[in-house]
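Page 37, top half.
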Amino acid sequence: GKLPLRIVGSYYWNDGGVDPLPELTEMQEKYNTDLVQAKYLKINMDGGDDKWNALYVDPYTDRPDIVPEPIIPYETMRDVLVRADAQGIDVTCHCFGDLAVRLLLDAVEEAIAANPPRERRHKITHGTLIHPDDYARFGELGIVYDSTGVWMTYDPLNQSVATTRLGSERVQMMFPASSVIAEGGTFSLGSDWPASGYVSEYRPLFAIEGAVTRTLDGRKDVPPLGGDAAKLSVEQALRAQTINAARGMGMDDIIGSLEVGKKADLVVLDKNLFDIDPNDISEVDILYTMMGGKLTHDSTAE
């Protein structure tokens, strides 16, 4: 009764020589309560662009001679994913570059072809760059695209490291949430905290603001990353932080929206986000939080 949040855990698999499914299955049986569940198989397809170990369809602009390999060989990853999918286990996968995204999409497509229909919740995390040819595949395959709102901005890291590695054209295509949504995909917001980019921030309102403005907090003088077309609407960002995030955890049947029969996990704000300047979203105060119908935070009592 003391845990003030719900935890959906993942089994981190980073050794292609080890079969992760027996231990994950054991953990799923051991940790399966209302508040704590061991649920996902976590895979890293690649690294990041700072060390030239993210996987891209096109070569690095500054080092075209570097062609990194997946952290786990594709065939090994695919075979495990297909078996996991057959057992009803969903995968959440770190995919930084657009080739990493494509490989995971390909593996899920093979799993769907090989296994009986079911309600899947596979998820790609980060998706810093996604090739335009793959935008529609998220909706077609039912894969959730999950990323971090405070990273979806034109910050000094994007201006320096990413531009050096990828060139300005690809940088302006980073975090294409609006394009994936337009093609019928589901986008969710997560903090990835305590991991960080230029900004280390776990608070959801900062993520929502970043996704809506595509600029650093309070920086109206900086152009939005990807231009105005890349911005999410407030409604899209709210859905990404609530019901879509719940879907990505396989919990949208019990949390994520205000519906009869769902658990009363609520947040009450002091302002309506639809009525304020999007650049001020992160300044809104949290009045109350509630989990399972119990008050867990009351700012008016402080």
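Page 37, bottom half:
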Amino acid sequence: MNSMKQIAYSFHLMILFLFLIHADMSAQGGMWAQMHGSAGTGALGWYGTKGVPDPLNTPSGRYQGAYWTDLQGNFWLFGGYHPYGYANDLWKYDVSLLRWIWINGPQSVTDQNGEYGTKGVPSPNNYPSARTFGPNCWTDNNGDLWLYGGFGFDVNNVTGGLSDLWRYNIASNSWTWMAGPNTIGEAPVFGTLGVASPINTPGGRVECKSGWVDAQNNLWLFGGQDGATANAGISVRNDVWKYNISTNLWTWMKGSQAMNNGGSYGTKGVEAATNNPPSRLSFTKWKGKDGNFYVFAGGNNSTARNDLWRYNPATNNWTWISGPNNVNNAGTYNAQCNPQPTEYPRARIENQTVATTTKNCTEVFWSFGGFKTVTNSESFYDLWLYNLSTSNWTWVSGTQNTNYVGNYGPLYVPSPTNMIGSRGGVFIWTDTANNLWIFGGLTYDSTISNLGLKNDLWKFIPDSSCFDYSLNSVLTLVPPVDTILCPGDTTGMNVPDLAILDIQPMSGVVYNNDSSRLIFSPVTTTTYTVTGRELGICPGRDTIQFTIVVVPFPIAEFTLSPVESFLSDPKFVLTNTSQLASSYQWIYQGVPFSTNTDEVYDVTDSGVHCFTLIAYNSEGCSDSVTHCGTKLIPDKIFVPNAFSPNGDNANDVVKIIANNITLKKFSIYNRWGELVFKTTDISKGWDGKYKGQDCEIGSYYYYIEYEAYKVKKTAKGDISLIR
């Protein structure tokens, strides 16, 4: 090669090198910022005081531990591969304080076999044994953190695949050994497909990060490396398991009992009972808002994949939805922030994943870094997101190159030139502002001769032009307008379309006929909490709380005086004695006549007079009562003192003339005391005959018994019979 060609060639290489450096440092989909830790490898960290945040605190460099996000949005990590061995310390990163806090476990690797305590019994002295290589981890719906398996130490300080299940309660800072043995090498016990049993167990699992929590608070896992044979080599599985927290039982749900199963892809996009992903080391923790579980990439000892699968727990079926069905595929890299149906990442293992946890329900999944295969430790630093709504991958950051050193810049300062370095087996989270966080991992780059453990913490701030915010869905629940009720009354609120509501408590609540409204009719004052979730790919969520006050009825009552009197006194005095009332309405014979508290009413007619009082409280609840009084006319009775029964139809009969009486007896006697006439009918009289014969002229005596206004009275006198 002559000198001019050598100069041209050298210049070409320099330009190519500068281009690659620029490409590695660009971050078109957002900006990176180093938030904590060191730029080097092998850092031992700083523990500080247990439970106390401090800007100096930081975990040691580590790889392939467990990680969680709690319900308050804080980040947690446990164990992993430590510069001096396997770790079993527990850390929390407070996102609001930007501080690490050492929470639990030892600060060295001298107590690697843990403290198991008694199975099922929480204790502040308990903590799991040290472990790494993909222990599974879940945050349940109540906020407890769960840990299963991994490769590490058992109670006898022997290393191998673990199958112990642990629960950590944040409030009490206590671990509980829940299930599984405290020794290594347990083989799976499958039992009957779909049937829970106390002897069922997935057995030891390593490199098994695919775990999900369903709406019923069950824990699920998929695949991973067989832990029972982990010391002999890498054999992988494709089985699906469900753990019921309330019953403490495992159920084998799907997949093969055999290791290294080739699976069955079926038709892309078509769910089928015969579909199964090939067995793999598995690292995807994506759960969609649709309730389905997602698995991406993974592999075995010498191969890696980049296929994407969806598991529907409701139907127990898999669907192959993206990527190729071959191994070690190079993927398709077009342009950053330009999602395409044909674009997807290259095959890899130990790429850690996380789903967005945004309040507004943006539906995307993240995947970062990883290694080519188990036997090829070249590490990636490309960042991808998968949009569940569009079913498209987006290449967000990094390049296709491997073993990139990274560019750190000042702490806390995001910059387009900052770039996280290549690595796999990281700890990964998202915050409520849609930012991505990555800690640690294992790296191989040009600055070190061997693989190095990182303890740097990075934050990635996505660019809105690349990170799709368009899927936001907002559900707004509107409480009832009327929240003050009378007993027996109802109020209601609308149920938004496509919304599923949870109402606590349910007492006094029903749906209307078409389920478009909630009807509330509590017996007593009740505070309700209504939580809503929309159906669909990206459902909105809302919670409202309101109190419905049930105001007691007033008690209407009054006295009427006098209850009975003669019409000569026409007044009724109405004295109100109601309780819990603030206004009134008086009614006489169906006609309102007053709103005064008390009243005096004059009547003009004799007879029974009824008055109704309606009492109202301040909320319009009412009660009524009716009382009646009587006005009387004085009783009168008259008997003529003579009559002439001579057949001229004039004064032929002697009768009682009276009003306001009830006749009991009317008797007439002759002068010898002989009864000649008797009746109890006031309309009848004596015609002057006795036994059909005319009585003689003369004087006769009458005697009357009667009642007037329930008072017994008598009258007597003489009658002259003339002709």
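Margin note: Residues 484-550 form one domain.
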